[in-house]
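Re: beginner question about structure tokens

> Can someone show what the tokenized structure looks like for a real chain? I only ever see the sequence side.

Sure, here's an example I had lying around. Input first:
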Amino acid sequence: MSTLTVRQVHRRYLLLHGLRWLPTGLLIPVLILLMQERGLTLPQIGLAATAQGLIVLALELPTGGLADALGRKPVLAASWTVNLLSLALLMVADSFAMFVAAWALQGIHRALDSGPLESWYVDATLAADPDAKYEAGLGHAGTVIGVAISAGALLSGGLVALGPLGGVSALTVPVLAATALQAVALIVLLRLLAETRPARGVAALRASVREAPRMIGQAFGLLRRSRVLLALVAVELFWGFGMVTFETLLPVRLAEVVGDADRAGALLGPANSAAWLVSAAGAALTPLLLRWPGAAPSAALLRILQGVTVVAMGLLAGPAGLLAAYLCCYAVHGASNPLHTALLHRQVDGPYRTSVISLNSMMGQPASAVGGVALTSLAAATSISTAMLVGAAVLAVAAPLYLPAWRQSRRAPEPLPAAAEPVSVG
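And the corresponding structure tokens:
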């Protein structure tokens, strides 16, 4: 890992990030429609998707600790291999049970994938130059993610428009392309991600598995000992709940505004692509926001601003205004992610970095599940607008949780020790 220069680490990190998210961009516009084409009802689709959240919730922390103990490369390789299997299953799934299995594999992939690549980037950058600033690279990665998903969404729409490919239906063609791209991404990962890792062999694997629970305990220990870190991780609870507004409710709200589901679907294709582009643009603002007003105050203000954009989505009556608010929401979302991640990384040293990132990611899973059930039920009982307003309030309420990090940044903080006393988890 130390033989790479900072520039090489940065380039490899961004390339791997792009390859990671391009297949996802291909799936986003067609996945729900594909499941309906294969005979699933909307309630069945919702239940199948729940499998991913439950698996991520169960595995997030153990896999994060495993990455810190075993190494980032083998865990990422396993993650991307599982994703390849999931995509292959989606191509042929024709029953509720098969789609549940595909979503469960996606959950394993997400749990393994959460944290190791950016942890590798931070540690490899510091290994190449201990004084290097890695925060801007995290913002660049957010930009790459936005561009990759946007490009994948556009490519997906083009492939569907071309029609069936032999015996493959039009909606399945993007899944076929995503499967091929995932195979390419796995090969590139194995070639480019270089790290210093424990000795290979069964004994090393056993030692790493035994080490993983201790890593998890240390991560919980850091939360217990740091109010700043605890508050940052708690932000994810409100964020995960509120994201339901623009990930799940927005399509229904748009159909309500335009009065036609087919027209809403036609508008959402390019709108989704544009949303990820403006998300990339928002992430590109990270270096500016880090300089002024700073990571913590910027993150707090963006939580409030995102709530305002969701309020606009819930209240504006025309499709143009609704979609403009949707794009603004994604621009704020893109700017928020790298700032939040940078604040997390400042609170922990390398050996426990992935475990803490996994803790943060894990918080969003139950929050998103609760938000999905609560906000859709509220929408059915009242209106889509009311549910979106409630979600907007939850997003904004998270802003004060950045105050401990803000106060810490205004004084000369003592660095948090990397190794806390072990905490039993079970």
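Each token stands for a local structural state, so reading them left to right follows the chain. The chain has two domains: 1-210, 226-410.
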